[in-house]
Design a protein that fits this description.
The structure is a homodimer. Chain A is of the alpha+beta class. Chain A contains twelve helices and 19 strands. Helix content of chain A is 34%, strand content 21%. The interface between A and B is large, with 78 and 79 residues.
Chain lengths: 406, 406
């Protein structure tokens, strides 16, 4: 039984409120969210992959996947029950007449060989077929405007002139902003992988190690858990204060601040976690400043409850860091939602008035970057509850000083 | 000294022929190609990252990067000499007044703190500034239509009404289709990583191993060489004949066909390699069919010379596979360019009349997929030369049978 990720009551409510009759997903995350079909090609060929999922508001449990005919096996194995499929293109497969075919192979045989004529000639015909099957040849359809190619969009408008296609990227994000129990379970599972990978990288940390050595150790752990490497920033000393760079050959010194800002993906869900460590005693200011930034996270987490806005959470964080030891602290944001995208909504920033809702999951981060010194940065995963945020991160809340004989 | 990837004579020629005065890159691959600035955020936040490189045809050695202010350190370290930078947004960094700043830190300080007022208020203003600096406020600019957000495009058109913005994704691909010596060097380097990872995965292959075990071994090798995991399809027996699936818990049996179709990225350049193996004696047809498909690759490789078209290469491959033991063989294409995208142009397919040019690098693949049996698939990397294609792959050209005591 494949998981239904879509939060149907929320989707129905928001679609109705915005006058949207259907959704047309055209990105990895939204196709997966609607159908449970994982189209790996979105990662391999991000500028060439055209795959879709369509749902009508009155049939949210019956998505229709529109995909290249190469996706049939994947659809057969993964799609939620009740999910339809319309393919485009042709593919050469042959059959061993002596073999007993599995269910998946039988589906592939029917779609790719026996009824190859039912596969549409091109992506626009397949999309039109999907919208017809969903009953969406008129009305308003919110589409993923950062995924659908402009030429496909233009041809589809011409093919189905009565459909009102409106940009839907932000609506998808609003639907996904509150996480179901299954999504929260996945977010915790990938968080455990991330935390384990940080511990693995720290086990090889000693004076003389390079950033690249630790990055590779982190990534070996991630792939060893079947997860996807997303970003691995591990920077030493002042390099942690200046921003992302490609060259990672810096060598660790005793007492130097190690800054992690790392993320990975498992079952579609992401992490984005930061921490500081040192091997041997650091500058005492590191510990003071780290504690101040953690006070900011705690204040923001406490504010993560219905009744507050994203901006309220922002102001709580900045005020607490300032009051707890970094009076000159400033930030443009102190975090963001996390889920199928590394940045889901809301953005915890002064201009974001999104109301906090029970079940929103956010990263809270209060980094302090000082050129010529270091990047001090804790970042935690917090789920909003009626009584304030619950921190899901299992890491120490202290600047960790590792004492190692070597 | 940072590498210039752009093939300037080719770019100049094609731009002139198509009446294009400037290029506006808006994707990872094209920004990197024009400027050598690696914007990791394109991988982390593919639907949210807005970063650009602009060049005018008469100043191809002076790209201008347009980026979020968070990219300053990266620009300072990586950009080709003569590259400009226009940022948008604000960022909080502080300075340790006691420290001696490095060159990179000094650049960050100047851009982010001392002259923060020069950072543009938003991405449209920064893009307009970049086009102005490049002298492209009128004339024709080919832009990356699969990267630029539609709302940014609309606002930019309004901001600079005299620029004729035309879709440029295909022009970028045509420019990149012939690889310079440096690009060929990178393609060979990442090929060695891919080959080593296949050997590592085969070292753990034995009856009882799962697909996932071998996938993880492959990926550990890739990340241990500082490369990026792109796709790791390792499938056993009939699963290799049905297409990509997400579940990878199949267990290997003695004599079963192992199908690799795998790729990784190093320094921006990709691989896409396939091979078959077995542990213990396979069905004799495997070896016969593998040899037939290799004959197809050899025939296609021989045809990879100026004077031929992509379609000619396709027909040579299909005819050779049919003549060498699989008379019912068929394919929609037998390969594609490889480079900064996993599929560069040309596509080796009957409808692609692209002339083959000296220095084009392609993957040639002649897979035979049989439901209920196996996926037989060799795939090699071949560079076109005046005397025919040169195969860059160092793997065996045989179906490899491993005999193992266990």
């Amino acid at each position: 039984m494949n998981e239904q990720l879509l939060n149907r009551p929320r989707a129905s409510h928001l679609m109705e409120r915005e006058g949207v009759d259907g959704l047309l997903a055209a990105t990895f995350e939204n196709v997966y969210y609607l159908s449970n079909v994982w189209m790996e090609n979105f990662f391999v060929l991000p500028r060439q992959t055209q795959g879709f999922a369509i749902v009508a508001r009155d049939k949210l449990d019956r998505p229709i996947v529109v995909a290249s005919i190469g996706e049939v096996a994947n659809y057969s194995e993964s799609a939620v029950s009740g999910c339809g499929l319309i393919t485009y293109g042709q593919f050469y497969r042959f059959v061993n007449e002596q073999a007993q075919l599995s269910t998946g192979e039988t589906t592939v045989k029917e779609r790719v060989i026996d009824h190859a004529d039912r596969s549409r000639s091109n992506v626009v015909e397949a999309l039109a077929g999907g919208l017809e099957e969903a009953g969406l040849t008129s009305g308003t359809v919110a589409y993923d405007e950062r995924g659908l190619f402009i030429e496909t969009f233009a041809a589809l408008k011409q093919r189905l002139p009565d459909v009102n296609l409106i940009p839907g990227y932000q609506l998808f994000r609003r639907i996904r902003a509150v996480k179901t129990a299954e999504e929260q379970r996945r977010l915790e599972a990938v968080l455990r992988v991330n935390e384990g990978a940080m511990a693995a990288a720290m086990r090889v940390a000693r004076p003389g190690v390079t950033e690249q050595d630790m990055i590779e150790e982190f990534e070996r752990y991630v792939v060893s858990r079947g997860a996807k490497v997303m970003f691995t920033q591990i920077a030493f000393g002042p390099r942690g204060g200046q921003g992302y760079v490609m060259k990672r050959n810096a060598v660790l010194s005793e007492g130097e601040v190690i800054r992690f800002d790392v993320g990975c993906m498992l079952d579609g869900y992401n992490t984005d976690i930061a921490r500081n460590f040192s091997i041997g005693e650091p500058d005492e200011r590191c510990i003071r400043y780290f504690d101040a930034t953690v006070a900011g996270i705690d204040a923001a987490a406490a504010a993560m409850r219905p009744g507050a806005t994203a901006a309220d959470v922002f102001h709580a964080a900045v005020a607490a860091v300032r009051a707890n030891g970094i009076p000159h602290f400033g930030r443009t944001h102190v975090g963001h939602g996390i889920g199928l995208e590394v940045y889901d909504i809301p953005l915890l920033a002064p201009a974001d008035s999104t109301p906090i809702e029970d079940g929103m999951v956010v990263q809270i981060e209060t980094p302090y970057y000082e050129l010529g010194w270091a990047g001090i940065q804790p970042e935690d995963t917090v789920v909003a509850t009626p009584s304030g945020g619950k921190n899901l991160t299992a890491l120490s809340r202290k600047f960790e000083v590792v004492r190692r004989d070597s």
